Amino acid sequence: MTEKFTPALRRRLSKFVALLGSPFAGERNATLAALDETLKGAGLSWTDVAELVRTSARGSMAQLIDRLFKGMSAEVLGKAWALDPKELETARRIDQALKDRDSAITADDLIWLVGMHAKTARRTGRR
User: Fold this and answer.
1) Is the CB of residue 65 less than 8 Å from the CB of residue 53?
2) pLDDT, position 89
3) Percent of the chain having pLDDT more than 90?
4) Would you call 124 helix, strand, or coil by DSSP?
5) CB-CB contact of 116 with 95 (8 Å)
6) pLDDT winner (highest mean) among 75-79, 85-89, 100-104, 114-118
7) Segment 100-119 mean pLDDT
8) 3-state secondary structure 78-103
9) What does the alpha-carbon distance between residue 94 and residue 99 come to, in Å, rounded to a whole number?
10) What whole-number distance in Å separates Cα of residue 4 and Cα of residue 23?
11) DSSP letters of 30-65?
């Protein structure tokens, strides 16, 4: 699967990932939408990104997680009122694992986080 992540696509994705660190929620949301479209256009999904993260060198994976998923996790927890108790428990567990750089975090955890980020945006009226 990593062969679909061509050098050109990696450069483009890395620019988007850098924008996810923006202090502006609208810019982060637009970037996430652009990432979704770019992945779809390349025949890839967030599952493929999670797999790339899982199989990457540890240092590269930690950097990617820091840039992409920590902000997303903080946004989900910032809308704790929109989560049911099980979702909140899962969000807190994943957030703590991200903060601890816990190697036990799974691709399924990251996929759940991306989905919950989109779901909380819908629940709170932000897209």
Assistant:
1) yes
2) 96
3) 17
4) coil
5) no
6) 85-89
7) 83
8) CCHHHCCHHHHHHHHHHHHHHHHCCC
9) 9
10) 31
11) HHHHHHHHHHHHTT--HHHHHHHHHHS-HHHHHHHH
Q: Centre a 10 Å sphere on the Cβ of residue 6 and count the other Cβ atoms it contains.
A: 11
Measured distance CA(103)–CA(62) in Å, rounded:
9
Question: Do 91 and 73 meet the contact criterion of CB atoms below 8 Å apart?
Answer: yes
SS3 22: coil
**61 has pLDDT over 80:** no
76 burial type by CB count under 10 A (0-12 exposed, 13-18 middle, 19+ buried): buried
> How far is the C-alpha of 80 from the C-alpha of 85, rounded, in Å?
9
CA distance 44 to 96: 28
